[in-house]
Amino acid sequence: MAAIVPPTAGDAESVSLQWDALKVPECVLARDGHACVGVPDGGSLVFGGTVVQVLASGQSGKAVETAEVVYIQPLTSPAEDGTLGVNVNTTGTPPCARVSAAACAVDVGGEPSMLVFGGMSMEIGWLGDVHALGMSTLVWKKLELTGELPSPRDKLGAAAVGGKVYFFGGFGPIDAVPDEGQGDTAPEREAANFTWFGDLYELDTATLVCRRLCPTGVGPSARAAHTMCAVGTNVVVCGGKDRSGRRNDVFIYDTVSNEWSSVGMKGAPSETSFSACAPLCDGRVVLFGGRLKDDSHSDATSVLDVVARRWLRVELEGSPPPGRGGHSLCYSGGRVLLYGGASDFHAEAGACLTRHGDLYMLTVVDSAVHKRKQDAEAPESETKTTKV
User: Fold this and answer.
1) What is the pTM of this model?
2) Range with the poorest average pLDDT among 157-166, 171-180, 187-196, 243-252
3) Distances (CA, A) of 237 to 38, 56, 149, 273, 380
4) End-to-end alpha-carbon separation of the chain, Å?
5) pLDDT cut 90: percent of the chain above it
6) Of 48, 57, 241, 387, whose CB count within 10 A is highest?
7) What is the pLDDT of residues 105-119, one digit of tens each?
8) Phi/psi of residue 383, each to 5°?
9) Burial class of residue 316, CB neighbours in 10 A (0-12, 13-18, 19+)
10) How far is CA 37 from each of CA 209, 267, 277, rounded to the nearest angstrom?
C-alpha cells in the first residue's frame, strides 16, 4: 500500500466525499461476510463469503458459502463507463469455503499477496488456518506458522504494517484460550464454550513466526465483528460487539511503541457491528454502515483523522449506498470500493434476509487532499501489475 501523507497545517475539520454507484458485472454476485483487499493496479480481490446462487431460470437460489476469488476493477472514473469483474482461476492449495475470515494485502515470499486467516465453515466449524494468494502468480499457499498462534475464530480483524500482519479479537471456541484479557470470567466461558477474544498477535511474513503481543496502555475490550485497518505505523480498531453490546469506540495500536490509545467520542458514529473501514488519505480512515443496536443497518459515512484523533464532519455528494453490514471497503488506486453486504435482519431467523451484490466507489472531492493522495501513490501504482 502506498504511503499515507500526514495532514498539513490548516486542514479543515470537514471532508467532502462523493459516492458513485458502479455497474455490476455478471460474475459479481450478492454476497456478505467476504474478505477483500486492494491490489496495486486499482482493483480489488474478493475471497469467500456467503453468496446467493443464481438458478438457470434467472431467479435467486439459496445462500451458500464459497471459496471463489473474484477480481473487481472500475474501468474508468465515471461509473457509467463500466466495471471489470473476473472469476479468478487459482492454483495451489486454496482455503476451504468460509465466511467472516480476516484478510489483508502484504508481501509473502517477496510477492504481493492476499493473506487470509480463520473464519467459519458450516461443515468444519471455526478455522485457524492461514493461506496466501500471490497477486501476480494467482497461486494459493497454505502457510505453516510457528510461535504463538491465534486460536480458531471468525469475525476478527487483520491489518498489515510493512511485513508484519496484526490480528485482533474475534469470536470462537474457548479451548486452549488463556484466561487473561478476554473480558469475561473463566466459569462463564466454560458454560458457554465460546467467547469473544481481546488478544493481539503479530505475524512476521518473512519468517512466518507469530507471537502474542502484550501492549501497554488501555486497549479495546474483547470483541468481534469490529473493523480494522492500518494507517502508517498505526493499526485502527473501530466498533464491533462485546459482552455489553455493540460499540462505537475507537482504539489505535502504535506498532512502534507497542502501545494502545483511544480516540475521543465527540462526533463518533452510532454503535455498530459488521461495519467496514479503509484508509482514505492524509492519515484518515473512512467508516461505513454496520448493524445498529436495534438490528437495523446504518447508512452513515464517517471519517476519522487518525493523526488529530478526531472525527470529521462529512459532506457527501453523489449516490451513497443504502445501509448494510458484512460488506467490504477496500482502498486501491486512490479510491475506496464498497462491495456487497446484507441487511433486513430477522430476529427469529437470526440472519439478514437481504444480500447485496452492488458496487460503489468513494472518492475525495477536496482537490488539495486528492492531489496529495495522487502524489503519494504515483510511484507504487505505476510500477506494479496484477495478473488476472
Assistant:
1) 0.87
2) 187-196
3) 19, 42, 20, 12, 26
4) 19
5) 73
6) 48
7) 999 999 999 999 999
8) -110, -5
9) middle
10) 22, 28, 12
Residues in the chain: 388
Q: Which cell is 345 given?
A: 435482519
Q: What cell numbers appear for 43 in the block?
A: 482493483
pLDDT band at 62 (very low <50, low <70, confident <90, very high): confident
- CA–CA separation, 146 vs 131, rounded Å? 14
Closest C-alpha among 345, 237, 351, 348 to residue 297:
345
- What is the C-alpha to C-alpha distance for residues 176 and 158, in angstroms, rounded to an integer? 21
Q: What angle do CA 247, 253, 239 make, to 5 degrees?
A: 10
Instruction: Give buried/exposed letters for 88-101 (b at 16+ CB in 10 A, else e).
Output: bebeeebbebbbbb
Residue 111 burial (C-beta neighbours within 10 Å; 0-12, 13-18, 19+): middle
Burial of 146-161, coded b for 16+ CB within 10 Å and e otherwise, reads eeebbbbbbbbbbbbb
What residues form DSSP beta bridges with 165? 160, 203
What is the per-residue pLDDT for 315? Answer: 95
Q: Tell me: the pLDDT tens digits for 37-58?
A: 999 888 999 999 999 877 666 6
pLDDT at 254: 98
